[in-house]
């Protein structure tokens, strides 16, 4: 089994938490809360990923999204004390440092009916006023005293903005899409948020894990099973 060179997974857990918040947001807005209709995949592999998960059936409608770039956030969001010194959390008796990040995603939505794609696209337009604020939160654990660990959920902002939504864009497979009566829209977006750093553990909150895992597939009340299942989906390791 391959192991990572770096053993601290706190930074990637923050990205997973943001991804889970995005799945919740889009599934609520477009699919009445059905999280199985939002998959983590690039546009190029969306159909393959969708059909693999549905026994060769696309089962429209659905949405795909995938992180394209991870950059330093805008200077206006910098707060030097919170970055260099950190914010002291009383309950943890520890500091958490915040550093702004900019995450760019590619994303598309796919529907059979022209009415439905236009309805969904209109929902995206209403969501594209650059005022959409997601409120993901991470579980931070102070294990300095192993016998009495302290867990605190730390909320951090994630501002969602779209980068030019387009209805029925041109694809190389245009003829095949038209023949199969498939309509689409690209809804690329960006997230302005923060990376978190501390000398304690940052993990995905238990309720977020089970909320996603149990929506997608029946999962026993087992944290490790839910964690593995969720991460496999967010790293495209599930066939």
Which descriptors would you attach to this protein?
239 residues, alpha+beta, STM4215-like, nine-stranded mixed sheet, three-stranded antiparallel sheet, globular
Task: Spell out the blueprint of helices and strands.
Blueprint: H1 10-31, E1 38-40, H2 46-53, E2 62-72, H3 80-84, E3 87-89, E4 94-111, H4 114-127, E5 132-134, E6 137-142, E7 150-155, E8 158-162, E9 166-167, H5 174-179, E10 183-186, E11 189-197, E12 201-203, H6 206-216, H7 223-234
Parallel strand pairs: 1-2
Antiparallel strand pairs: 2-4, 3-4, 4-10, 4-11, 5-8, 6-7, 6-12, 8-11, 9-10
Helix pairs in contact: 6-7
SS-based class: alpha+beta
Could you tell me how far the N terminus lies from the C terminus, measured between alpha carbons in angstroms? 18 Å
CATH C-level class is Alpha Beta
How large is the share of residues in beta strands? Answer: 25-35%
Shape: globular
Sheet of most strands: 9 strands, mixed
Q: Write the element-wise H/E pattern from the N-terminal end onward.
A: HEHEHEEHEEEEEHEEEHH
**How many helical stretches?**
7
Which parts are unreliable, with pLDDT below 50 for 5 consecutive residues or more?
A: none
Average pLDDT, rounded to a whole number, is 83
For the CA atoms, what is the radius of gyration? 19 Å
Helix content: 25-40%
CATH topology: STM4215-like
- At CATH level 2, the architecture is 2-Layer Sandwich
Number of strands: 12
User: Any idea how many domains?
Assistant: 1
Q: Could you explain how this protein is built, in words?
A:
By secondary structure, this protein is α+β, with helices and mostly antiparallel strands. The protein has one domain (10-234): STM4215-like. Helices cover 33% and strands 31% of the residues. The protein has 7 helices and 12 strands. It has helices at residues 10-31, 46-53, 80-84, 114-127, 174-179, 206-216, 223-234, and strands at residues 38-40, 62-72, 87-89, 94-111, 132-134, 137-142, 150-155, 158-162, 166-167, 183-186, 189-197, 201-203. Strands 1, 2, 3, 4, 5, 8, 9, 10 and 11 form a 9-stranded mixed β-sheet that branches. Strands 7-6-12 form a 3-stranded antiparallel β-sheet, covered by helices on one side. A hairpin with a 4-residue loop joins strand 3 (87-89) and strand 4. Helix 6 (206-216) packs across helix 7. The radius of gyration is 19 Å and the shape is globular. The two termini are 18 Å apart. The mean pLDDT is 83.
């Amino acid at each position: 089994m391959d192991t990572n060179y770096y053993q601290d997974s706190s930074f990637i857990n923050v990205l997973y938490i943001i991804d889970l918040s995005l799945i919740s947001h889009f599934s609520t807005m477009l699919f009445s809360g059905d999280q199985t209709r939002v998959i983590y995949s690039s546009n190029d592999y969306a159909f393959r990923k969708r059909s693999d998960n549905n026994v060769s059936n696309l089962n429209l409608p659905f949405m795909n999204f995938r992180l394209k770039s991870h950059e330093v956030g805008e200077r206006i969001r910098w707060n030097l004390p919170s970055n260099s010194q950190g914010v002291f959390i009383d309950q943890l008796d520890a500091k958490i440092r915040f550093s702004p990040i900019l995450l760019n995603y590619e994303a598309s939505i796919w529907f059979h009916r022209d009415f439905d794609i236009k309805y969904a696209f209109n929902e995206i337009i209403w969501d594209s006023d650059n005022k959409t604020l997601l409120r993901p939160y991470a579980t931070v654990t102070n294990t300095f005293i192993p016998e009495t660990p302290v867990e605190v959920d730390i909320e951090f902002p994630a501002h969602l903005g779209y980068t030019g939504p387009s209805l029925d864009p041109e694809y190389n497979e245009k003829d095949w899409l038209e023949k199969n009566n498939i309509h689409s829209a690209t809804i690329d977006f960006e997230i302005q948020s923060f990376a978190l750093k501390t000398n304690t553990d940052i993990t995905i909150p238990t309720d977020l894990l089970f909320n996603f895992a149990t929506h997608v597939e029946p999962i026993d009340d087992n944290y490790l099973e839910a964690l593995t299942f969720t991460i496999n989906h967010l790293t495209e390791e599930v066939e």
